[in-house]
Amino acid sequence: MKFSLKILMGATAMMALSVYSCKDEFLDTPPQAALSNTLLASNQSGVDATLISAYKSLGGWTGAGANAWGAAPTNWVYNLAADDFHKGSEPGDGDGWLAVELFQWNPAEGSFHNKWISCYEGIVRANSAITTARSFAETNPDQASYATEVEGEATFLRGWQHFELYKVFKNVPYFNEEDTEFNKPNDQDIMPMIIADFEKAAQMAAPNKTAVGRVDRTIATAYAGKAKLYSGDYAGALADFNTVINSGKYQLSDCIFDNFNLATENNSENMLSVQASVNDGDANGANANNHDRLGLPHGASFTSCCGFKQPTFDLVMAFKVDANGLPMSTTGVPVKRIESGASDVLDPRVDYAAGRTGVPYLDWDVHSDGWIRGQGYQGWYSPKKTVHLKANPTLAGGWTGTQLSALNIPLLRYSDVLLMAAECEVEIGSLEKAREYVNMIRERAGACAQGEVGNLMVPIDSPEITWANYNVGTYDSPWTDKAVARQAVRTERRLELALEGHRVFDLKRWGNYAAHMAEYVAREKVLVPALNNAQPVQPRHDAFPIPAIEISKANGTLTQNPGY
User: What element of type H or E holds 79?
Assistant: First the structure.
């Protein structure tokens, strides 16, 4: 049985105070059906409930219902503005998301507001958990260490939510547990405060996870490193990543698919995941992997809905390898559809990431063209990493309940940490150490492949594989050219973490967003004509627009991001 965090999150959600705007009017009226912090702090169960409510927010604010797509923890709406996802579906369906893909970003887009209110809801829940833990410690001094660990976890969750806001909007207000003024300007760089939260959590949280799905000091340290990497502090980031790596607590799983399989998802590699559940008392599946449901295949498939989040031609082509099993650059190469059984030699991770016609789709069936909505409007591939197995239970009832399962959504994998450490090594450390880390990822990539329907992990040279030629090589010659090493690390990051929500933020922080996307659009639009309406990436696209409704509510306190 999975840790009860999955089951308890929905039951305790109402116990957190709800604030989702910079307007203080939301604090003036006590929320109905909410318990006071004084009552919650009177016993350990109340403290636990408040903390679990904060964890609940990792999955996106369920108070907005099943349609809060912009709050999805994979950030797929924002990654439409990169080169891994198309909006998908068919013309006229989800035009607001098509506008994201075409760089026609509108401050009134509802998905942007989903993210805003989701993260600030999570922040207020985290701050509530901090104050509750402190109050509990005051009256229960013998439980001080427990309260300290809870405060550490809640501080991490506050940092995580602010980090999400920073990645999407960049210029946002920061709130801690002592704030009493909630109509704050967004004129400060909040990254130092995010880093401080992660570093504080790395001192206060439990040394090791107290239960599956919870945060420990090592995870907080990894996020401190990630935030420093985003700030350009390679030395500080590398020190944190080395602490994580040298701890020996986390390691790569045997097969990449272990991280996307309900039976093995809480393994030594999945450091932090949204813990999902179904049939837990919530008839609407609010605790399931709700906000990523639209990516399941359409038409003649096993769910009949909805055909969004289609992998790009460019992404699938990125898995092509040369005679040595090493990645081949897609830059300047005309895009094409990679057919099953074609002569192209591929990295086997492609068929764990994208559904291709003629290739077995997990344990469901062989993927077919009939599963594609819009019949090629935005390609012929289906996403795969967030899709449950036929053998897994799904929601009994509700709207298309067969889409909703208890499959977790990974937020941080150890492979991510290794690749971020490799990135830092390239910039300020050892190219050979970077090569070592990348080869660790590549060696694991060659350990398994999708087999026949139901055979989820077989050797890459298994005779049953007739739809592809797989090969994965390692970098066996020393790395001596910094630019070449940098590109190898970045390519590996795209392949290993494809469709997991990192790509658009990586491209932006690398500083090559505009040029890269211009080159990609010029090639991809040959097969996806909708991209002919794409605007060029401009400086304003460095951040998504702050939701217009929040600008309006703030009465001049919030400043819109430049260019909107």
Answer: helix 76-79
- State the DSSP H helix or E strand holding residue 346, giving kind and residue range, or none if neither: strand 345-346
Q: Dmax of the chain from CA atoms?
A: 70
SS3 508: helix
Q: Does residue 181 have a pLDDT over 60?
A: yes
CA angle 276, 280, 282 (to 5 degrees): 95
Mean pLDDT over the full length of the chain: 92
Query: Residues 96, 76: contact at Cβ < 8 Å?
Result: no
Q: Is 320 helix (H, G, I), strand (E, B) or coil?
A: strand
Q: 346 near 338, Cβ under 8 Å?
A: yes
How far apart (Å, rounded) are the C-alpha atoms in residues 507 and 505?
6
Contact partners, residue 363, CB within 8 Å, separation at least 6: 389, 390, 391, 453, 454, 456
Tokens for 436, please give them: 């070592």
Residue 248 neighbours by CB under 8 Å, 6+ apart? none
Q: What is the mean pLDDT of residues 388-400?
A: 89
The contacts of residue 556 (CB under 8 Å, 6+ apart) are none
pLDDT in tens, 36-84: 667 676 789 889 999 999 999 999 866 555 578 999 999 999 999 999 9
Which residues on adjacent β-strands are paired with residue 365? 361
CA distances from 12 to 46, 75, 153, 206, 362 (A): 9, 25, 17, 22, 34
Q: Which residues contact 138 (CB under 8 A, 6 or more apart)?
A: none
pTM score, whole prediction: 0.93
Tell me the one-letter amino acid at 528: V
Question: Measured between alpha carbons, how far is 559 from 128 in angstroms, rounded to an integer?
Answer: 27
